Amino acid sequence: MQTPPAFAWHTPVPFQPTMPQSRKIASQLDSHADLGVPIGGIGAGGINRGPGGGFNRFTLKAGQVDYLTNPADGFALWTTQCTAHALRPTAPEGWPCDSTGHYAALFPAAWHSYRRGDLSLKIHQFSPVAPGLEPDTDLPCGLFRATFTNTGAAALDAALMLSFTNMVGWFNGFGAPGHPGGIAGQWNRATDNGVLMGRTVATIGEGDGQMMIAAQGGEVTTCPAFDPTRDGTALWADFASNGRINPLGDSWTSGGGFSEFHAPQHTGAVAAKVTLAPGASQTVTFVLVWDLPLIRFGQGRTWARHYTARWGTTGDNAELIATHALTSADRWADTIAKFHGDANSRLDLPPEATALAINELYMLTDGLSVWTAPTTTEPAHFGLIECPDYPLYNTLDLWVYAAATVADLFPELALLVACDYATTVAQADAEPRYHLRSTTRFPRQRHGMLPHDLGAPNADPFVCPNDYAYQDSTRWKDLNAMFAITAWRAARTSDPAPFVAPVMLAMEALAKFDRDGDGLIENDGFPDQTFDNIPLNGISAYCGGLWLAALRASAALCVSAGVDASRWIAMSKSAEPAFINALWTGEMLRVDSKGAFRDACFAEQMFGPATARMLGLGDVIDPDMARTALRTVFRRCFVETGGKGAVGVASATHSSSQYAPKGEEGLQWDEILIGFNYSLATQLRVYGLEAECRALMQALAHELGPVRGLHFRTPAAIVPSKPTFRAQMNLRPLGSLGLVASHA
Description:
By secondary structure, the protein is of the alpha+beta class. The chain contains 16 helices and 34 strands.
């Protein structure tokens, strides 16, 4: 029986944060604290199951997150000693609920533990998302291993039931899933050990296919189809009487309804019953599968999910996938346990911080992830959303952070993103876009300048990039440098040759912003980088440092590909001392050389130099200077601002937010930006400041977990003095496992 490691995130059920319920920025997506480890493979869509035991967040529609509560979805427990009850907060009318227990989470696994009379029940949930589980990492399924233990002196019987709604046909477009008038053509039927759910359609489209629930072990009984509002009481009476369930009449297919009289909702159930002698244990395994092979983005292009390369695009393989998952359960669980042990050893952090870092991997599954199957004419594509509030795929200025984790665990996925960006560099698109904050227009993309993102889900991602219009990103000073770093990171485990030409083009385009010939690029006095509310002017610590790292990366890429690297080497030799001369104060790097707030303390000032060191590119500034700067950042942005996390910009004399655009005071300036905080923790470790790294991670674990309840929905930012957050389910915090890196 797999038990949760001591360093997993542990909480009583139901979980309640100690701070008053977190408040979101007006008009942005909001959810709740009852969120946990999702099930599902990478790019297969995710289903989130919270500490309370309910399934409540669905990302089965590519590019959309849906918060749904189907009362019939979840587990229910029966024993000869206690009244039967549903193990979740809500259930159909007449089904008593009791979800009190204990929850532990360590992605991609979770553990619900319950005690009822003499029965101890532990439900171990997991999906095959860990290094070493290829090629199963893309499978649309989740496993639940339920271990019953009799702690009493007399024998007892116990049973666990999983019921789930047929959702085939629900996730077929943007907007609310499902239809009050019903989904026509749905059917459920019993199999040897479960219930297969599907829908009859003339032509398979997005959201069509099959689902399945099944069980292995104990005495398995099924109810292929019931409607919770019509048959729920009869099904519960069966289960509550003896732990078995039976079919409720003949099979039926879904039809129509009226808006005020909803159509019957197809739901299936499977139960497993065991008899336990005193002191005995027995394990049964449940599986939930959804074979929904196609995705369709907003402008009509359809893609096949990656798992279909092995399992086909017909959408009728749910039973085969379920069988494969059940027979693979031991191997998957053992590999995940090994991954957890390795990650814990490599992270070498206090338990709460270890759990925080590992659980940020939830974005691989639940981050509206897309992983397409390759064809004879089209390579595979991989995409993660920036966040549902800023719905853009593989936003480059966030991806360069997240890639520290993805490239470490799944280098083939990081390579796909690097290749997609490589194809965009030579593109130009003069289509005018409206600036979201003014009446200004600008072109969608300029030749040689990297796009901000690979497209929006409601548009045509991977084909038509750069859907961002909050600022004119075609003049940003960080994206091209980030691409050079991304390409070098990918080239270290692949052929570097395909990246040489696009990197050279990107670097030459960015070099034009070196206007005085000192080898350093300059910012132009508006927010021309990822901090799109913070204007930088002249040489800046953030963009200048990235430029230094990109020069080193470009030279290394050329050398590894056997191409002349002399231009980038010479430019590095000129730029590195100029960078220090322009920005070094004796205790830190100035924000920039000409801006109005240049003497403030910028939390992310060392990102470029630390990234270069972490990627084996050497030291672009003196390590002692780097350590001094990071100690200053730690003191001014973290310790002196309350110790909850490092704020973006700290000033000893005034609030930096006075420089923010009207109506956006404080955004990025006075916030604790979570992804950048993980980056700062990594930088501290890269330069040997271990105590500071651990203190920062401990503070973040406390603030995001028990205080605010933001686990499995990590936002871009929180406000230190308020229960306010912004842009939850953010991509940048996925870079948390960059902490495993050490300097070359």
